What does this fold into?
Amino acid sequence: MPVDLKQKDVMGGHRKDEVLDIDHSPSFFKRGWMNTPVDILPSMHCFACEPARLKVVDFPNPRQWSVMDEDWKLPKDWNKIVMDAFGDRLDRFRTLKLFMDICVRCGACADKCHFFIGSADPKNMPVMRAELIRSVYRRNYTIAGKVFGKLAGARDLTYDVLKEWWYYLYQCSECRRCSVFCPYGIDTADITIIGRELTNLLGLNIDWIAAPVAFCYRTGNHLGIQPHAYKGMLEFFQDELEDVTGVRVEPSYNRKGAEVLFITPSGDVFADPGTFTCMGYMALFHELGIDITWSTYASEGGNFGLFTSHEMMKRLNSKMYLEAKRLGVKWILGGECGHMWRVINQYMATMNYDLTEGTKLETPVSPITGTRFENSSGTKMVHICEFTADLIRHGKLKLDPSRNDNLKVTYHDSCNPARAMGLMEEPRYVINNVCNHFYEMPPTTIREQTFCCGGGSGLNAGEDVELRMRGGLPRANAVRYVHDKYGVNMLSCICAIDRAVFPDLMKYWVPECEVTGVHEMVANAMVLEGEKKRTVDYRGEPLPGMEDAEDV
Amino acid sequence: MSSIMSLADLLAQKKSPIVKKWCEVVVQTYPEGGQSFLKTKKNQFSNPVGHTIAEGIESIYDELLKGAKSDKIPLSIDNILRVRAVQDFFPSRAVDFVFGLKKVIRKELGKEILKEGISEEWAEFESRIDDLALLSFDVYMQCRQKVFDIRVSAVKNQSHKLLKMAGLAYDLPENYESPDYEGGLKEGQTHLSE
It folds into this structure.
């Protein structure tokens, strides 16, 4: 049967009239960017959210809709809803007002976004992404924009403009690399955050964000894992750990009176290779013998509320302090996660400060070394890399880094810990103490200039693989470089989304490289009290020199 | 110009403008607002796509001149198409730049080719470019196939894990041995009736 080339799905969703008119130089600025309507392509966006997800958290305008449909079934007064909310946020957030006004379009940010670098789509330049919204701001809030319209870079919010907003707001991973280069300090991620808040008011959310929000609200974590299943997974890890090390660890759950509460992203509990990192935490706590408890209620470190609205972020975050209060702990230890630490470090201590009243929370002190974490006196929460680096510094862990000698490791600075809390030395200090072969990627791709994995801010869905493959290209390209130069075969990171996104990214760009969390390597190198002769690592792979061991 | 110039000599002599224009052919397939970025910066880490194009095109051109037998051609083609396979291109648009080389050379050397009477050499070179186009399509499809594989394995892994967690699926252990039972197959036997 002959293929009908005009079928939309045959041609990968391109517009029908393009099919037989293959133009090799798409006219973008010929018509001007304002007159170039958005062309929504499959695999470059995430699916629309199911209405049930919105209903459970009282988000407005829940309905069944599809991104590829012409009609997004918007409420009749959608324009008024958005413009009213925009005005409200301009009043409430001085940052937004400033960011709308002060950009001089110098272009310093233009080529810093991984999505632009990987696609060359000009609307993925941070300045352009912001300009999509700024143009509507000018039209409604500046005299020049009101009088001169397009001549002053201003335009009305039309249906097409709204779709364009949506498409590009959900092609930004809020990684904030662009903000590092802005001479005015404009944080384009903040503009994305507000832009998404506005789309959220129209029920235009994506399922990969709305579902975790709903599950987190209802069950305590993104995946909707109920307490018994959460405990069941950790019990599974207990058995695995015992097989590997001969040591039986005994975590406790929801234990009142514990000194420390441990909160980590649920991805560590349920998604490989994060699960091996989770086993690493368990081994560490057991070895230290510290008074720590896991919670099946505050069973999620991540906070996808950040990708919907400030209010939802606050609402989901509240469970950390509420659980700390319920259990009566003195401080909270947090696992390896990305945006979780942005929320904690930049928002929690102020937005939910009132919830610390009546708790026993105090400035965290390591029960092993006595170190007082003054930097956490506001949040009462310590990052596990800080905690472990301090243990190593004080010689409290018995480590055999040669157990990781089969690994040639590089380290990806996960965006949020690096740029939102400046956590750059501690992970490196830990890695250098637990393995012998560590190689940095080029300086312009790490630390505060680190490239995003391409899947942050809720974009790590299954349906937008191509978007992530090209968004992750700059990061993968740097990994490829250290692989070719030094033989790097392990990409380490401290973010659950990284650990979910990188394995596929590596399969496409650097198939010789695997992915790990830092605490998987810590646990692998850690010599546990009473352990049996170790022959395999936490993945069941032979340790270096143990390839022929009988029980492998 | 000498009357005994071969096509290879001409192509080598004009390498610089031809490679430059061929790179432009590739860059022009991208949206206009992104082209200047791809063209102007060749830094391997800040502009990996522009760098891959510039480096790959030059390498392919050099190898085509040498007879197109080196392993470097598939590698360079892979580098360029691995990128284009996840960008907003039709398949035809993704690989079309290969044919662009013909146009560039005709424009740059058309008169000399006629003047030197080397059209047979040119025909042979053109067929090398055709072979390159076929190779490109294969590589493009391999990259697309990889994307599809990634999608499928993600779904499979997720659903299998859920089934296992729900106690609905059971994995055979690695050291699984078939149970011994009377009347079972003996060594070398393939059917019970044997």
Remarks:
- The first helix of chain B runs from residue 7 to 13.
- Chain B has a mean pLDDT of 87.
- Residues 181 and 192 of chain B are 13 Å apart (CA to CA).
